[in-house]
Amino acid sequence: MPYYPTLADMMEAMHWLADRGFGPAPQTVPIQSDQTTGDQMVFRPWAPGTDPAAQGPPPGGSSNDERAVRRPWLPPDLHDIG
User: 71-82, pLDDT tens digit by residue?
Assistant: First the structure.
């Protein structure tokens, strides 16, 4: 005979999985200081002659303003329709 769990059974399974199956939620610890201990990031300007924006469009023209447009592929019997 099949067993159909009740709502209480499903709630108990949910609590069991939350506590044991998936493990307890990680505890967060607030940091009391605003000081960071990592490396400081310093943003510097590009070296002369190496800034890509200052060198103009890429060779062969700008690819931002162009795109290739093709009609969709059609089977040979419908080729003359499109």
Answer: 666 666 665 554
Written as one letter, the residue type at 12 is E
pTM above 0.85, yes or no: no
Distance CA 6, CA 2 (A): 13
Distance between CA atoms of 25 and 18, rounded to whole angstroms? 8
Residue 5 makes CB contacts below 8 A (sequence gap 6+) with 13
What's the pLDDT tens digit per position in 34-73? 666 677 778 888 887 787 777 776 666 655 656 666 766 6
- Distance separating alpha carbons of residues 38 and 36, to the nearest angstrom: 6
Shortest CA distance to 82 belongs to which of 70, 66, 68? 70
Six-digit token string for 48: 């002369």
CA angle 34, 35, 40 (to 5 degrees): 130
